[in-house]
Amino acid sequence: MDLTFSKEDEDFRREFRSWLDTNLPAEMRTGAFWADKTEDESFSIRRQWEADKAAAGFAGIVWPTEYGGRGGTPTMKAIYDQEMIRANAPTTVNPLGLTFLAPTVMFLGTEEQKKTIIPELLHNKTIWCQGFSEPGAGSDLAALQMKAERQGEEYVLNGQKIWTTNAMHGDKIFTMARTGAPEGSKKHAGISMLLVDMHQKGVEARPLKQMSGASEFGEVFFTDATCPVTEVLGGEGNGWQTAMLLLSFERGSSAISQYTEFRKMWDEVAAYARETSRDGKAAAQDPVLRQQLAKSLVELECLKYHSWHVLTQTSQGKDLGFEASMTKLFWANTFRDLGDVYSDIAGQEFQLTAGARGASRQELTSMALWSRSCTIWGGSNEVQRTVIAERVLGLPR
Amino acid sequence: MRFALTDEQRDLQDAVRSYLRDRFGPQQVREVYEDPAGDAVPDKLWASIGEQGWLALMVPEQYEGFDAGLVEASVIARAFGAGTVPGPWLGTVLAAEALRLGGSPEQQAAWLPRLASGEAKGAVALIAPGNSPRPASAGAEAVQGRLTGTLNLVEYAAVADVLVVAAADGLYLVQPGEGVTVQALDALDRTSRLTTVTLTGAAGEKLAGATPEVHQQLLDRAAVLVANDLVGIARKALTDTVEYDKTRVQFGRPVGSFQAIKHHLADLVVHVTMAEHAALYAAYALDSGAQDATLAVSIAKSKAGDVARQATSDMIQYHGGIGFTWEHDAHFYFKRAKRLEYAYGDATQHRERIAALLIDAAPAEDNSLGGGTAVGGTGASQGTGVAAGVAV
Question: Would the CB atoms of A1 and B71 count as touching at under 8 Å?
Fold first, then answer.
């Protein structure tokens, strides 16, 4: 057992921390700064700040330098994630590109794709959307209907995608479409992953308002949109395998940053409990609420230990495989349950967008609402449980 | 960064697992179970435990031990939980720990080599049943070296050569003899033997260095070993249930193919895995004197207790009727888990200790995430080990 970091890793932490100290203005670390900005204004400030960070060499931490990455270790990536959250740095505007597309391109893209896609994505020259879900194909992704018909050197796309993060800001979309028919009952066949330019006449994005009131996702309509036949990732007809590989990158990799973020939230919730009155005493003194808070802390710290386990595995070059579904299921539930503990402490005041502790409470409420999406996106809890039961435990289909 | 057993620790784990597989399996456990009048110390097993050095792991080298840590001892505890192994291993190990941490050199020399080899068996009364895990009398009062009182639910006192007793003013060594009466109790989990010890002016030898901090340290170490036993139980209960449900056919298909069962077992394996992490880290945290050690102990004990309860209940449920029979092993796991769930503080009491550590005191301003010695060591907000444990 060794829970320390190497000197190189610690040097990297110091270097990045000091860069953040200099280059992340104090006001940008507060909720108040972002509260009076429109979504477009926020997006454009974050996009620029992130591009500056990439220019300083703090992006693509584990990716090879030849593709614009830093060539660092998985541990450095974990440190990077922690420091970003510690500093209250703006979250990435290119999450789908960074988390899903880039590792997939690195794994199975052509040399040409690696050299163009990854550096442009790192510097936010291209904002990527993910086009998987359709109105009739959510958890049952293989039921997708979008068609890509080959006409000469182009595919012509027709169909609709939904729940598309950054739909209104996207430059390109990696999307799943039918390039061929299913083979009998094998509906996973005949699907391809296409890389489509969103700035064209046949592509129209419309915002969708979420239950939190934000519009960070939307829907994308394709009407005779086109993309060159060279813009296929993983080969024509291999879209299903490509998508499964792509999703596996998300499910397990980020446990340490999830922990860091949720633990900050827990500390805020505990502080709120100390100041909130319940039957004439602090809510923090209520024996039942104390138990709930402590139970939430237990789960959170287990997530931290688990992130060490994940880091140990990835540092040794081991693939997490289907166990990544365990990580996703656990962090999503832990986060959601913390949101519920918070609302139990807030009680009726949960309804109020302002009130005591102003910005802090607003942020807690928005996290509690956001947590309701995390048990759905990236494979719902129910999908993860089926994966775990069949692929980890080996229970029969 | 390596959060995993070392190769040596893994070898130890393989050794104890393969010993149990080959020499002390469910049939041998059942023989102990079905002999309620016996002392539940199978001779060959106990001799082997001593010969293999499994009692000597934490004993210093000068007393014929291995000078290893709680992580190594936890490897044994976990395997013993998975095997529902009977015998006074825990009591003997904890008695030796009490001597190591609080005994005089003379007391250590007199007892540690014998406890390390298994020649002498130990038992401990460190906490009164139902109490939260903090230093207090287990039920005895000492007056001029003479102990009087009733010690409830003491494991294996009938076979112990030495008993470590928590009195109001510290820890004492008591040997069987005048003033010591041990009464066997009829208890559910027959992989152990519970007794009531009545002391009436029994001669007690005080452990000179056994401060309240040492007492707390012992309670924490006991909680970690029990947590590891519990996660061993939980993992085995899960594994056996999965295997059974792969082959048990109802409605023309294996019951493990039904989503209602699949999803439940998927949730269970996630939580068993988390409890394993927590039990491992708690052992390491105490070994390394980590800043969050006290917190880690309470996390491990509460999580392991909750998970073992769930896993052993599921084992019965997802075996159907056969799981409720005496002939099936499911009740070994269920009853052992029930015994240990409440030992050295139950889940609720440990969560209350977490609340006292983290909720009552406002955390320090910088919830420092790494940058120190360990990832996510969350700084001063988690109290300072033993001292914080005593304060609650």
Answer: yes
On whether residue B15 sits in a domain, the answer given is: yes
Q: Are residues B195 and B234 in the same domain?
A: no
Radius of gyration in angstroms for the set of CA atoms belonging to chain A, rounded to a whole number: 22
CB contact under 8 A, B370 and A382: no
Beta bridge partners of A134: A137
What is the C-alpha end-to-end distance of chain B, expressed in Å? 32
Separation of alpha carbons B126 and B116, rounded Å: 20
- Residues of chain A contacting residue B374, judged by C-beta atoms under 8 Å apart: 3-4
Nearest CA distance, B77 vs chain A (angstrom): 18
Which residues, in sequence order, are CB contacts of B137 under 8 Å at separation 6+? B128, B149, B166, B167, B168
pLDDT digits (tens, 9 = 90+) for A229-284: 999 999 999 999 999 888 877 655 578 889 999 999 999 999 999 999 999 999 99
In our burial notation (b when 16+ CB lie closer than 10 A, e otherwise), range A237-251 reads: ebbbebbebbbbbbb
| CATH number, domain with residue B385 | 1.20.140.10
In this complex, which of B6, B267, B363 lies closest to A267 when CB atoms are compared?
A: B363
A396/B378 touch (CB, cutoff 8 Å), yes or no: no
Phi, psi of B65 (to 5 degrees): -110, -170
Q: Residue A98 carries which DSSP code?
A: I
Same domain, residue pair B204 and B222:
no
| Partner-chain residue, chosen from A85, A270, A298, that has the shortest CB–CB distance to B299 | A298
DSSP state of B390: H
Measured between CA atoms, the residue of chain B closest to residue A384 is: B266
- Catalytic choice (A83, A216, A231, A250): A250
B2/A1 CB distance under 8 A: yes
Confidence of residue A42 (pLDDT cuts 50, 70, 90): very high
| Distance of alpha carbon B346 from alpha carbon A308, whole angstroms | 27
Please compute the mean of the pLDDT values over residues B327-353 and round it to a whole number.
98
CA distance B3 to chain A (A): 5
Let me know if residue B2 belongs to a domain.
Answer: no
Q: Do A284 and B359 touch (CB under 8 A)?
A: yes
The answer to whether B170 and B141 are in contact (CB under 8 A) is no
Which residue of B lies nearest to A74 if distances are taken between CA atoms?
A: B1
Which chain B positions have a beta carbon within 8 Å of A5's beta carbon? 1, 370, 375
User: What total number of domains does chain B contain?
Assistant: 2
**Tens of pLDDT along B220-249?**
999 999 999 999 999 999 999 999 999 999
Place of tokens 């395998």: A241
- Between CA B279 and CA B310 the distance in angstroms is 17
**A250 among known catalytic residues:** yes
The CATH code belonging to domain A128-237 is: 2.40.110.10
B239 and B159, same structural domain?
no
Pull the structure tokens for residue B116: 């390390």
Shortest distance between the Cα of A114 and any Cα of chain B, in A, equals 30
Residue B372 has a pLDDT of 34
Cβ contact, residue pair A86, B369, below 8 Å: yes
Domain that holds residue B295: 213-391
Three-class SS state of A348? helix
Last residue of a domain, one of B179, B194, B210: B210
Q: Where in chain A is the domain with CATH 1.10.540.10?
A: 7-93
Contacts of A341 (CB under 8 A, 6+ apart): A269, A289, A292, A293, A296
Distance from CA of B372 to the nearest CA of A (A): 8
| Cross-chain Cβ contact B274/A4 below 8 Å | no
The class level of CATH for A7-93 reads mainly alpha
Q: pLDDT > 70: what percent of chain B?
A: 92
Q: Which of B269, B303, B369 lies nearest to residue A392, judging by beta carbons?
A: B269
Chain A residues with CB under 8 Å of B253 CB are 396
Q: Are B55 and B271 in contact (CB under 8 A)?
A: no
What does CATH list as the number for A254-392?
1.20.140.10
